[in-house]
C-alpha cells in the first residue's frame, strides 16, 4: 500500500513537471514568432523641443495607405471641427514623418485635438493634444 502511494506521487510529480515544461516551451515559441514578424507598427511621437508631432513606424515592414484622422473637441465658433482625414505616403520601417496639418479653427477655451493614424496593414493608433484656444491662436500643453 505504501509503495503504491509513493509510486502515484512520483507519477503525479513527473506529469506536472512535463506539463509545465511544455507550457514554457510553447510560450517561448510564441514570443519568438511575435518578435520575428510584427509587421508595421504606427506610433505618434511628440517632440517637446520642436513642438512637432511625428508619426513613426517602429515595426519591421512598410506601412501602406496611411490615413490620418483629425478630430477637434471644444468651444469652436467656426472652422472644421468634424472628423477630417487625409492620406500619407507609405512609411518605411524606422522612419518618422512630421504631422503638420491642423485645420483652421476660431474659438475660445480648452480644446482637445485627437490624431488617429491607420494603415492598410497596421493597427490604428491615437494621440491627443490638449490646447487652449483664444481666437485663432492655439497654445499647446502636454
Written overview of the protein:
The strands form 2 sheets. Strands 4-3-6-7-8 form a 5-stranded antiparallel sheet, with no helix packed on it. Strands 1-2-5 form a 3-stranded antiparallel sheet, with no helix packed on it. The chain is built from 1 helix and 8 strands. Strand 6 and strand 7 (122-135) form a beta hairpin. The protein has 2 domains: 1-36; 42-141, Immunoglobulins (Immunoglobulin-like, Sandwich). It has 142 residues and is an alpha+beta fold. The radius of gyration is 26 Å and the shape is elongated.
| Name given to the CATH architecture of the largest domain | Sandwich
Sheet with most strands: 5 strands, antiparallel
Instruction: Kindly identify the CATH topology of the largest domain.
Output: Immunoglobulin-like
Total domain modules: 2
Q: Kindly report the spatial arrangement of strands forming the biggest sheet.
A: 4-3-6-7-8
Principal-axes geometry comes out as elongated
> How widely separated are the two ends?
72 Å
**Contiguous helical run count:** 1
User: Which percent band covers the strand fraction?
Assistant: over 45%
The helix fraction, in percent, is: 10-25%
Q: Which structural class best describes the helix and strand composition?
A: alpha+beta
Residue ranges: pLDDT <50 for 5 or more in a row?
A: 18-35
**Briefly, what CATH class of the largest domain?**
Mainly Beta
Rg over CA atoms: 26 Å
CATH superfamily of the largest domain: Immunoglobulins
How many strand segments? 8
Amino acid at each position: 500500500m505504501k509503495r503504491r502511494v509513493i509510486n502515484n506521487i512520483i507519477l503525479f510529480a513527473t506529469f506536472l513537471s512535463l506539463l509545465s515544461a511544455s507550457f514554457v516551451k510553447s510560450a517561448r515559441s510564441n514570443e519568438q514568432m511575435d518578435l520575428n514578424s510584427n509587421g508595421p507598427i504606427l506610433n505618434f511621437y511628440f517632440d517637446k523641443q520642436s513642438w512637432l508631432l511625428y508619426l513613426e513606424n517602429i515595426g519591421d515592414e512598410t506601412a501602406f495607405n496611411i490615413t490620418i484622422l483629425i478630430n477637434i473637441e471644444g468651444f469652436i465658433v467656426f472652422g472644421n471641427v468634424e472628423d477630417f482625414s487625409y492620406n500619407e505616403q507609405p512609411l518605411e520601417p524606422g522612419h518618422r514623418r512630421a504631422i503638420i496639418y491642423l485645420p483652421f479653427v476660431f474659438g475660445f477655451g480648452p480644446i482637445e485635438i485627437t490624431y488617429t493614424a491607420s494603415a492598410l496593414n497596421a493597427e490604428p493608433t491615437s494621440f491627443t493634444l490638449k490646447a487652449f484656444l483664444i481666437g485663432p491662436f492655439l497654445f499647446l500643453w502636454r
